[in-house]
Amino acid sequence: MIEYIKGELTEITPAMAVIECNGLGYGINVSLNTYSAIQGKKEVKLYIYESIREDAYILYGFATKQERELFLLLISVSGIGGNTARMILSALTPSELCNVISSGNDKLLKTVKGIGLKTAQRIIVDLKDKISTTDIGTSTTLAPVNITANNEIYEEAIAALTMLGFAQAPSQKVVAAILKEEPEAAVEKVIKLALKRL
To answer: How far is the C-alpha of 63 from the C-alpha of 61, rounded, in Å?
Structure first.
């Protein structure tokens, strides 16, 4: 079992990071929180979860053990797969997610794409006690990355949303609207807002 991968960050998009370690390039699925944490770094260390299925071998990577722990708790809930868990961890920070679960805020959880009311309630019921027994605590807030080229943010956000499974046309519409409202928003913020609107 792979515990973590440490190496040179050779490629990064808001949904995927490639880390080169001893001549091997690992394609690792990341959440938006992890993307924010490792963006711009040369050397990175990601804590890994391996999803081994008959038809696929997928690596999920996390900047912190806490985020990985939350991911494992989420996929333990019936009906939540790796991509849905990653979507939840892209829409909410680990500390926000802990607050949502411990306060039973199913309405906020329901704003994440692919999460209906029943699933949101199931997540809260299944994980409420588990969250209080773990020391997942508050995560550090990440400094926003300032990119003045709006076009670059637009392209990156669209690419990330299509990688997460959204259709291109509605993604473009939503991202354009967000950038009109908040021209200074960093790409992570644009994607987070888009996830709530799509």
So the answer is: 7
Q: Provide the CB-side half-sphere exposure for 122 (13 A, CA).
A: 13
Q: How far apart, in whole angstroms, are the C-alpha atoms of residue 39 and residue 47?
A: 16
In what helix (H) or strand (E) does residue 25 lie, and over which residues does it extend? strand 24-30
For the stretch 3-58, pLDDT in tens is 999 999 999 999 999 999 999 999 999 999 999 899 889 999 999 999 998 998 99
Question: What residue has token string 């391996």?
Answer: 50
- 50 forms beta bridges with 59
Cα 141 from chain centroid (whole Å): 15
Judge residue 117's burial from the number of C-beta atoms within 10 Å of its C-beta, 0-12 exposed, 13-18 middle, 19 or more buried.
exposed
User: What's the count of helices (H) and strands (E) in the chain, helices before strands?
Assistant: 9, 5
Residue bearing tokens 């939350």: 70
Residues 6+ apart with CB under 8 A from 54: none
Residue 39 buriedness (CB in 10 A; 0-12 / 13-18 / 19+): middle
Helices (H), the chain: 32-38, 65-75, 82-91, 94-103, 106-109, 117-133, 150-163, 168-181, 187-197
Asked whether the predicted pLDDT for residue 167 surpasses 90, the reply is no
Does the CA dihedral 124-127-128-134 come out positive or negative? negative
Closest C-alpha to 147, from 138, 162, 157, 158: 157
